[in-house]
């Protein structure tokens, strides 16, 4: 209902707690999300107050932004002989930026569902599909939590989590160096 009243909204997730409902709202403009959200926050709250029985039931409504987790990727690749390593790094970075975009990333460009961060297997599948001519030897993925600590994205249990592209480090491995 929020998306039909406030067209700049791309996704909504509601989480019910003891005292009320937290409503995470992803705006279409993910590059300037904080500003876009601040501009529409009051309108979203107004729609909720008008069309919901939650406040009449004594429940509080908290409208919030998603929690964005930069995803850092380190990978060791074996490029096809004669390929330019700088070009391989550029293509990997572009593929990861597209894939990790919260609004238009994921498979099929549909965006990530709030509460779901990419797995190592999903990132591997993305790179294998989007960057032909390389063999992934090793892949390490970490999410930067709000406290600044890096951890495996699979261990994050945040219903409002969404990925963002982070830092990507690409190492080239010669056949004799491979594990």
The overall average pLDDT, rounded, is 88
Helix content: 25-40%
The neighbouring-strand order within the major sheet is: 6-5-4-7
Tell me the β content. 25-35%
Q: Which secondary-structure class do the elements indicate?
A: alpha/beta
Separate helix tally? 4
Which key terms come to mind for this protein?
alpha/beta, 28% helix, four-stranded mixed sheet, 179 residues, three-stranded mixed sheet, elongated, single chain
What does this 3D model show about the protein?
With 179 residues, the chain is α/β, with parallel strands linked by helices. It is 28% helix and 33% strand. It has four helices and seven strands. The protein has helices at residues 2-5, 33-51, 85-100, 120-130, and strands spanning 9-16, 20-27, 60-64, 67-79, 134-144, 150-151, 161-172. It has a four-stranded mixed sheet with strand order 6-5-4-7, covered by helices on one side. A hairpin with a 3-residue loop joins strand 1 (9-16) and strand 2. Helix 3 (85-100) packs across helix 4. The mean pLDDT is 88.
